[in-house]
Amino acid sequence: MKGYFMKSSIALMVLSAALASCTQDEIVQNDVPTRQTLNISVNTQDFVSEDGSRATTGTDAGRTTAFVEGDAMGMYVISSDGTVICNNEKFVYDGKVWNAENELYYWKNANYIAYYPYNADLTAQNITKVEEIKTKFAEPVDFYTQNTAEAYEKADLMLAEVNNPVDEIIQFNLAHQFSMVEINVPVRKYVTSDGYKYTAPVGMADDSTIKIGESDVKPYMAGKGTFRFIVPSGEISLTLDGRLVYDENIPVYFGKSEAESINLEANSCKVYNVTYNKISETEVERDIEVGDYYYADGSIYPYGNQNENDCPAPVKNGCIGIVFSTTGVNDTDGVNTWNHGYVLSFKNTPDVGMWSADATVTLGEKYYVAGTDFTTEGSVEARNAFLDLKNGYLVTQELIKQENAFAAHEAVAYGDTYPEFSAPEGLSSGWYLPSVGQIYAMLDNLGELDFTTDKQQAHLFLDRDGSRDREAKEAARDKVIEKIQKINADYTLKDSRVWLCNEGANDKAWAIQWFDNWVGFHTDDKTISNNNQKIVRPILSF
């Protein structure tokens, strides 16, 4: 489930007959002469604030939440004598309905328990009561480490119980079983000349002292100055002595060092609103610039070229990439939602691999871009058309329809590989394989490519000698490295070969490599060999 707060969604589970894990002999009171399809309607409740109102803030305006494809929940069915009929049965949402991994049917005179998110570890725990699920969810030593969306959601147990339903149509109303603490802080607000609104990031410093009892808390940065964390309901001791980071290494202190006792009911929240008079409530007009930094919550640090309204020290926590273009965005992708900028990711995928399993993974001739004569002086028009082709999102979405398009699947799963680099849903396209034109734009804009002739540009496309015009190409690469290392000194572009989305033929795909003596684009076999194993370095649009 995405949104991690206003969990308001309705889904219908249609579960077909027969339960593989139990028999009629085991549960004699369930005499089912004919199979009955189990229909389950699932609703979710919002957190409720202390005054009884729904727990929303100004940061949540317009947000919609729903289950998304791949979400999973668990279900128990317990007979009246305490026998477990269904033990932690898993359901996965496919975008429309919930599908059980094992076939299920309706049992009379039983207690039905549904919970979210699914936890496979509960299967071996002999669960028969709701309280046992709550206990197991709160047990992990890292329960309060909730500084990613994944970790926050993992802690936020939602549950519903239906006793002795009168027929096979069962409605679950999932409610939060724990409580939530929310901290709202002021943020810098911006609007572009064409009306696009964005905020600068604000982070929570690592040396902030947020504790529940003696346990350290790492809150989830939900965006637009909102931090949240899940806590057990009941009376708790909260220490809130925080340090906000609007600019790196310049902390802003809030809270107090003494602990306070608060008492929270399940499905309720405690909201703290922080004031800071140095952050204006007024929006500043500023266009997004190449060199701005992009964050997991969709915020943008206004670094740019250090002109008016730019800020000098980008926040490191939560930064997932750098803006490399604000023009021509998605001009061939057919996507209008994310047309404000392109973002380059900071890290390569950890493992080298094939573009695809074999030459049968292809989008066909209309997508092929042959590059054999791009290095000739007579190919300027064709080469420029290729460099203008910014269709990474479109091609990636087509490629992932094929199971063995390995590089494309690696790109869209980048946030799973590196949870700290998860792209914000709804605010961005998500990660995808870049096209040659998009990577060229990155080198040209961030790297400030200094090519004075078409022939020099042609030498970005390798034939047998990738060292031509080496100085200009390496200088561009190194300028990009300098900018991404403002966030982390370990980030680099060097010493790697990176797959791109474009095909050169049914058995060839484009790539870029950036070594000290060899920088440029080339085509190579899609399938693996000792010298063409490559990694993925995705981009996103916002």
Question: How do the helices and strands line up, and which of them pair or pack?
Answer:
Blueprint: E1 10-15, E2 38-44, E3 48-49, E4 72-79, E5 84-93, E6 97-100, E7 110-116, H1 130-138, H2 149-155, E8 158-163, E9 169-176, E10 179-184, E11 189-191, E12 197-199, E13 203-204, E14 209-212, E15 215-216, E16 220-223, E17 226-231, E18 234-247, E19 250-264, E20 268-273, E21 284-285, E22 293-295, E23 300-301, E24 319-325, E25 342-345, H3 380-387, H4 392-399, H5 406-412, H6 414-417, H7 436-445, H8 454-458, H9 470-484, E26 497-505, E27 508-515, E28 518-525, E29 539-541
Parallel strand pairs: 1-6, 2-9, 3-20, 10-20, 11-21
Antiparallel strand pairs: 1-2, 4-5, 4-7, 5-6, 7-8, 8-9, 10-17, 11-12, 13-18, 14-15, 14-18, 16-17, 18-19, 22-23, 22-24, 24-25, 25-29, 26-27, 27-28
